Amino acid sequence: MKFWKYHGLGNDFIIINNMESKISLDGNAAMKLCHRRFGIGADGVIFVEQSTQAQAQADIRMLMYNSDGSRPEMCGNGIRCFAKFVYDKGIVKKNSIAVETDAGIMNIEMKVEADIARTAIVNMGQPDFSAAMIPVTIQKPEVINHEVDIEGNKFKITSMRMGVPHTVVFIDSLEDDSVIKLGKLIESSEYFPRKTNVNFVKVLDRKNIILRTWERGAGYTYACGTGACASVAAGIVNNLIEEKVKVQLRGGDLIIHWKDRGDIYMEGPATEVFEGICSNW
To answer: Which fold has domain 2-124+268-277?
Structure first.
């Protein structure tokens, strides 16, 4: 089985071309492929497939598994890698690409130099703050700047669905050990019956933030595109930042723009690392 390895600011993925629908892998197989000692090593596996929504004008379909075998609806860094892959490999040779995901159709604009896709601008849609859609068990229509107590740790959280569930905590210290410990607690707490991605944000000024994300199903990653979008949305509704912000992640920077509280746009790079053959599949 041929595969490619890509990363979006250090958030890394195995990409498999399944346009002929000859490859069938489940969550258990994805876990083995993502294992960093016994497999290829990645935060997730992405399949490139024929769109099932041709009448809705999707060019292609992205199907993904996390490293723990779960299926996320979509992934912000993953979809930039996906878009670069299908453009550079000539599968969809268009500067504007409509990608079918489990979170709906995502529209992507490629910035191309010398026939190579360098960066992508993704229309990430609108955040949904409805508690029922996240879902969250807190008995409020929306969870914005709401204090919770998780095993004696008190936080003020803002939660939303940004394609996938996200919870944002504004904090002064972003030490790795603390992010990992508290991220695990919040992700699997009783407040979130389907778990949640957890974003810890330090506001530098109204146009710059630092983000550290504990991802549902993947753990502490170098970058999270949907998390960056969720963090900017949370910062805006809490009146902490402007509508266009540079988000500094462990693996690099993303530009997030939530203009007039309409659709959120994410701009950032994707990088091909290598290609190879996995002989055991």
So the answer is: Diaminopimelate Epimerase; Chain A, domain 1 (3.10.310)
Residues designated as active site: 75, 224
pLDDT for 120-175, tens place per residue? 999 999 999 999 999 999 999 999 999 999 999 999 999 999 999 999 999 999 99
Q: Is 249 helix (H, G, I), strand (E, B) or coil?
A: strand
Q: What does the domain layout of the chain look like in residue ranges?
A: 2-124+268-277, 146-262
| Residue 20 phi, psi dihedral angles, 5° rounding | -95, 5
Is the pLDDT reported for residue 55 higher than 90? no
Taking the C-alpha atoms of residue 171 and residue 155, their distance in angstroms, rounded to an integer, is 9
Class of domain 146-262: alpha beta
| pTM score, whole prediction | 0.92
Q: DSSP characters for 157-195?
A: EEEEEESEEEEEEE-S---HHHHHHHHHHHHTSTT-TT-
Assigned token pair, 267 = 């701009």
**How many distinct helices (H) and strands (E) make up the chain?**
4, 17
| Residue 191 · residue 137 · CB < 8 Å | yes
